[in-house]
Amino acid sequence: MLTVDYDRFDLRAGDRLLDLGCGFGRHTYEALVRGGEVVSCDMALAELESIRNTAPLLIKDGLFDARLSHTLVQGDGTTLPFADHSFDKVIASEVLEHVPDDDAAFVELLRVLKPGGTLAVTVPAWLPEKICWKISSDYHAPATVGGHVRIYTEKEVRQKLRAAGFSPTVSHRAHALHSPYWWIRCAVGVNNEIDDNFSVRTYHKLLEWDIVKSPWLTRTAEKILNPVLGKSLVVYAQVPVTAQVSATAEPAATPENPAATDEPPAQHSTLNRAMNRATSRESARAT
After folding, report:
1. Residue 44 phi, psi (nearest 5)
2. Rounded-to-integer distance, Cα 202 and Cα 207, Å
3. Over 60: is that where the pLDDT of 172 sits?
4. Residue at 160 is within a domain
5. 233 exposure class (CB count in 10 Å sphere: 0-12, 13-18, 19+)
6. CA 241, CA 117: separation in Å to the nearest integer?
7. Domain range for residue 269?
8. Helix H segments across the chain?
9. Tell me, what DSSP letter sits at residue 79?
10. Who's near 155: CB < 8 A, 6+ residues apart?
11. Domain total for the chain?
12. How far apart are CA 109 and CA 178, in angstroms?
């Protein structure tokens, strides 16, 4: 399930990408499929270990080239263990809402990007997140250790990007079908197992089916609902090439910088199916 739209992100073969807060690697694998040189960075060793075990299975399935550079790094987004200007592209997906000092993280993201580089930031969108917080205090910090510490508006994300030195560009929303799922989970007990509740279990199966099959019906429904109910907000930003480039004015729409739109990114169904096969094989091997 991709949150960042790689076509808007314009990742090209040979680009060096940092996938910060990589989790179990969805954005990492898509970048490798497109020929990127990837550093997957997360604080959670278990998730890095999952990527280490799954990536060879995807290579075996022919999804990407084994010769591509792919490095796993345990790291903190506020003190990244990388030199200045190390990356052409950076993704920070569903990370910053967990970080108490997010201003420091924005500054670090600018530091490690090359001049002219592109950042894609995704955070929970304001309305769906606000509802989750209202329904259940267990959904967020401090009740949940390491949980969400703030709710962003798009205006706030753009202000923080500019303050750090970025030039924000386009934005969109994604995953509208996931918002009701999290509202149900919050209502019945967000810390309960998925299989403990019929509604949660059934909706979860629907989402799994949608991710793998990407049918026309759900893609159309999500495209219509995303502007209001999209669970994730995605904002793209550029690093100014020179000091003369304004970090406060947003670029006009051009063929290279299309106008903002709420159309959801296309799902990579082939990768999703391969991911599910690889994950199933890895789980079977571990049991």
Report:
1. -90, 115
2. 9
3. yes
4. yes
5. buried
6. 8
7. 6-125+145-174+230-286
8. 6-9, 26-33, 45-60, 102-112, 126-135, 154-164, 178-188, 198-213, 216-229, 269-286
9. B
10. none
11. 1
12. 28
Helices 26-33/269-286 angle, 10° precision: 120
CA dihedral 233→238→239→243, nearest 10 degrees, is -120
CATH of the domain at 40: 3.40.50.150
Q: What is the pLDDT of residues 98-125, one digit of tens each?
A: 999 999 999 999 999 999 999 999 999 9
Say what the pLDDT of residue 1 is. 86
How many residues in the chain? 287
Can you read off the two tokens belonging to residue 56? 């060879």
Residue with structure tokens 């279990």? 201
pTM passes above 0.70: yes
pLDDT for the residue numbered 277: 54
Q: Which CA distances in Å does 107 have to 27, 164, 166, 239?
A: 22, 5, 9, 11
Look at residue 131 and tell me if it is in a domain.
no
Confidence class for position 242, pLDDT limits 50, 70, 90 = confident
User: Residue holding tokens 């949660």?
Assistant: 200
- Whether residue 225 lies inside any domain: the answer is no
Q: How does residue 260 score in pLDDT terms, banded at 50, 70 and 90? A: very low
Q: Which token pair is 158?
A: 């753009």
Q: Please count the CA atoms within 13 angstroms of the CA of 118 that sit on its side-chain side.
A: 20
Counting Cα atoms < 13 Å in the Cβ hemisphere of 287 gives 6
Residue 212 counted as domain residue: no
Q: Which amino acid, 1?
A: M
